[in-house]
């Protein structure tokens, strides 16, 4: 039967394995072994092969032997090449690699995962930091008060190369349960603009300035609350009876007013150190010196900070780090190489600085098994033929991929 114009061009077959000497698949189609590199695996259904029954009721063993004989007798042309060949990367292999270091959604998943000991240590460190900061005190829950629930959020921290730096556990309040006018009032907190970041990095490259990075640990815990808020105890670290809750003394991640409380605290401390907030960007703080080369720029995006000054003013930069360390618990990351998901590649001799999102792009390609895909000049194949009666496609993955691509751009 001839194929019509709108009929699909592909043929159904049975996956047999890989062609050992080429990047291709071996597929049984119409009783013959075909070698093809263009194969779409049906992952939505699990099909079972059944032997056909002969008219006398006997099984189809003879047919099976005949098919196996054809497979064994099918000649294959072996092509020798100096290149190193490997089987095509499959979706399940990429998924398996990602699942090794998957981030759990709940404390139960964390304790049942192979990295249970790492997650347990991360939660213990987070609790120690909260206790040291005096974030709350345990009290009996007042009558008529509904405490704000909390949850653990687990994150694998990586460097610019994608290697694991540490396992991070953070206690987060479920701020969506808060009631406006009772649990919070003002919530707005400014962050630095990306245009300001690009302008400063351009200045760093052209004038060969020092570019250092700081990370404020548990930044939101430094904010002082103006409201009276009660919170349930952290899962896995409960003390006392069921009526015992936490009365918050400091802000906590997840609270609607936490970003504002942290920014207010940070701005107050920086002003005491001689900094002035920029009128053009509330996330940029400047400490002016006698000369322009003595100026120190501090760019803040929530808890990530960039310090910029001239090479001749490096001693002032070191002094500022010591002052900030005496106020907040900071992590000195040295020369900035990875900021807000962007890799910073700098050549001081040529005075160039390049921003890229290579790691983010590779993770996105791995997620959709496109790491070995070739680039195209058009978003859709010019040879695509639409079918009159086709199945509706799930657009969720397409929307996510499109949104992520726009973000990387």
UniProtKB/TrEMBL annotation:
Protein origin, superkingdom: Eukaryota
Signal sequence interval, chain numbering: none
Every Retroviral polymerase SH3-like domain range: 2-47
Span of domain Reverse transcriptase Ty1/copia-type: 133-381
TM spans (from-to): none
Annotated protein name in UniProt: Uncharacterized protein
Region Disordered, residue ranges: 42-88
């Amino acid at each position: 039967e001839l194929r019509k114009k709108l009929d699909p061009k592909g043929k159904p077959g049975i996956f047999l394995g890989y062609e050992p000497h080429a990047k291709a698949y071996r597929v049984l189609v119409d009783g013959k072994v075909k070698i093809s590199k263009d194969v779409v695996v049906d992952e939505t259904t699990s099909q079972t092969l059944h032997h056909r029954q002969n008219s006398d009721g006997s099984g189809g063993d003879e047919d099976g032997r005949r098919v196996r004989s054809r497979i064994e007798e099918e000649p294959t042309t072996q092509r020798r090449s100096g290149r190193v060949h490997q089987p095509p990367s499959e979706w399940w292999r990429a998924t398996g690699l990602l699942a090794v270091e998957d981030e759990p959604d709940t404390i139960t998943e964390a304790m049942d995962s192979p990295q249970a000991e790492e997650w347990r240590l991360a939660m213990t460190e987070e609790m120690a930091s909260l206790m040291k900061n005096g974030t709350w005190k345990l009290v009996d829950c007042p009558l008529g008060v509904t405490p704000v629930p909390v949850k653990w959020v687990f994150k694998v921290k990586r460097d610019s190369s994608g290697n694991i730096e540490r396992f991070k556990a953070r206690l987060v309040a479920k701020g969506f349960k808060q009631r406006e006018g009772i649990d919070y009032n003002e919530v707005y907190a400014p962050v630095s603009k990306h245009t300001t970041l690009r302008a400063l990095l351009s200045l760093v490259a052209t004038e060969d300035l020092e570019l250092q990075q700081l990370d404020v640990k548990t930044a939101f815990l430094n904010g002082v609350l103006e409201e009276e808020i009660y919170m349930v105890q952290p899962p896995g670290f409960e003390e006392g009876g069921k009526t015992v809750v936490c009365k918050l003394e400091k802000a906590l991640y997840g609270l609607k007013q936490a970003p504002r409380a942290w920014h207010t605290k940070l701005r107050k401390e920086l002003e005491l150190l001689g900094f002035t907030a920029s009128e053009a960007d509330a996330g940029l703080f400047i400490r002016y010196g006698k000369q322009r080369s003595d100026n120190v720029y501090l760019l803040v995006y929530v808890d990530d900070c960039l310090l910029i000054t001239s090479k001749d003013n490096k001693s002032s930069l070191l002094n500022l780090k010591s002052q900030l360390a005496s106020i907040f618990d900071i992590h000195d990351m040295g020369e900035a190489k990875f900021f807000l998901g962007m890799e910073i590649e700098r050549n001081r001799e040529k005075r160039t600085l390049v921003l890229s999102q290579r790691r983010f792009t590779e993770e996105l390609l791995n997620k959709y098994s496109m790491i070995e895909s070739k680039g195209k000049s058009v978003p859709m194949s010019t040879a695509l033929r639409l079918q009159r009666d086709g199945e509706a496609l799930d657009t969720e993955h397409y929307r996510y991929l499109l949104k992520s691509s726009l973000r990387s751009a």
